[in-house]
Amino acid sequence: MLMLPELVDDLIAEILLRVKPGEPACLVRASLVCKPWRRLISDPTFRRRYRAFHRARLRIVCDAIEWRQIVS
Protein backbone atom coordinates (compact mmCIF):
# COMPACT_ATOMS: atom_id res chain seq x y z
CA MET A 1 0.00 0.00 0.00
CA LEU A 2 1.29 3.47 -0.88
CA MET A 3 2.02 5.89 1.90
CA LEU A 4 0.49 9.37 1.66
CA PRO A 5 3.61 11.19 0.34
CA GLU A 6 4.08 8.55 -2.36
CA LEU A 7 0.41 8.79 -3.30
CA VAL A 8 0.65 12.57 -3.56
CA ASP A 9 3.78 12.25 -5.74
CA ASP A 10 1.97 9.80 -8.03
CA LEU A 11 -1.02 12.15 -8.32
CA ILE A 12 1.24 15.12 -9.13
CA ALA A 13 2.97 13.03 -11.81
CA GLU A 14 -0.38 12.06 -13.35
CA ILE A 15 -1.52 15.70 -13.39
CA LEU A 16 1.73 16.97 -14.94
CA LEU A 17 1.60 14.16 -17.47
CA ARG A 18 -1.55 15.75 -18.90
CA VAL A 19 -0.04 19.19 -19.55
CA LYS A 20 -0.46 19.81 -23.27
CA PRO A 21 2.72 19.25 -25.28
CA GLY A 22 2.08 22.47 -27.20
CA GLU A 23 2.57 24.43 -23.97
CA PRO A 24 6.09 23.54 -22.77
CA ALA A 25 6.28 26.75 -20.73
CA CYS A 26 3.71 25.23 -18.36
CA LEU A 27 6.05 22.36 -17.50
CA VAL A 28 8.95 24.78 -17.09
CA ARG A 29 6.90 26.90 -14.68
CA ALA A 30 5.76 23.78 -12.82
CA SER A 31 9.38 22.70 -12.43
CA LEU A 32 10.04 25.99 -10.59
CA VAL A 33 7.42 25.27 -7.91
CA CYS A 34 9.69 23.13 -5.77
CA LYS A 35 12.67 20.77 -5.97
CA PRO A 36 10.59 17.56 -5.94
CA TRP A 37 8.57 18.76 -8.95
CA ARG A 38 11.77 19.77 -10.76
CA ARG A 39 13.22 16.30 -10.09
CA LEU A 40 10.01 14.69 -11.35
CA ILE A 41 9.80 16.74 -14.55
CA SER A 42 13.49 16.31 -15.37
CA ASP A 43 13.41 12.57 -14.65
CA PRO A 44 13.97 10.51 -17.84
CA THR A 45 11.20 8.09 -16.86
CA PHE A 46 8.67 10.94 -16.57
CA ARG A 47 9.78 12.37 -19.92
CA ARG A 48 9.37 8.96 -21.58
CA ARG A 49 5.90 8.57 -20.07
CA TYR A 50 5.01 12.13 -21.15
CA ARG A 51 6.02 11.48 -24.77
CA ALA A 52 4.28 8.08 -24.84
CA PHE A 53 1.10 9.50 -23.28
CA HIS A 54 0.81 12.29 -25.82
CA ARG A 55 1.85 10.11 -28.74
CA ALA A 56 -0.95 7.66 -27.87
CA ARG A 57 -3.51 10.48 -27.65
CA LEU A 58 -2.34 11.92 -30.97
CA ARG A 59 -2.71 8.49 -32.57
CA ILE A 60 -6.33 8.30 -31.38
CA VAL A 61 -7.09 11.72 -32.93
CA CYS A 62 -5.44 10.73 -36.23
CA ASP A 63 -7.40 7.46 -36.31
CA ALA A 64 -10.66 9.37 -35.77
CA ILE A 65 -9.82 11.75 -38.62
CA GLU A 66 -9.02 8.85 -40.95
CA TRP A 67 -12.26 7.10 -39.97
CA ARG A 68 -14.28 10.23 -40.83
CA GLN A 69 -12.58 10.44 -44.23
CA ILE A 70 -13.40 6.79 -44.96
CA VAL A 71 -17.04 7.16 -43.91
CA SER A 72 -17.60 10.36 -45.95
UniProtKB/TrEMBL annotation:
Residue ranges of coiled coil = none
- What SMART domains has UniProt attached to this entry? FBOX (SM00256)
F-box domain spans which residues? 7-50
Q: What is this protein called?
A: F-box domain-containing protein
Q: Which organism is it from?
A: Panicum hallii
